[in-house]
Amino acid sequence: MNTDLSVVTWFKSSYSSGQTACVEVAWLKGNRVGVRDSKNPTGPALIFTPGEWDAFTAGVIDGEFRRPA
């Protein structure tokens, strides 16, 4: 499925402090979620289904993706 990502509204986390090296997110049709690198706005983007996004954000909250000490 092709999605025209040039017409969606991308946003950064409020924690990004306006930095340019951020992850941007867009709410897409069908409750899907787009994720891209703010340094490369015309580059590739990941598109998550609602279930995938929920699992990802739950993992972030639970610390699943923390860098090992």
Shape type: globular
Total number of domains: 1
Which spans have pLDDT < 50 for at least 5 consecutive residues?
Answer: none
What proportion of the residues form beta strands (DSSP E)?
A: 15-25%
Largest beta-sheet characterization = 4 strands, antiparallel
Average pLDDT for all residues: 88
Topology order in helix (H) and strand (E) letters: EEEEH
CA(first)-CA(last) distance? 40 Å
Structural class by helix and strand composition: alpha+beta
The total of helices stands at 1
Return Rg in Å: 13 Å
Structure commentary:
The model has no long low-confidence stretch (mean pLDDT 88). The protein is an alpha+beta fold and 69 residues long. Helices cover 17% and strands 23% of the residues. The chain has one domain. The chain has a four-stranded antiparallel sheet with strand order 1-2-3-4. The chain has one helix at residues 50-61; strands at residues 11-12, 23-27, 33-37, 45-48.
Q: What descriptors fit this protein?
A:
69 residues, 1 helix, 4 strands, alpha+beta
Question: What layout of secondary structure does this protein have?
Answer:
Blueprint lengths: L10 E2 L10 E5 L5 E5 L7 E4 L1 H12 L8
Task: Give a concise summary.
The protein is an alpha+beta fold. The chain has one helix and four strands, in the order E-E-E-E-H.
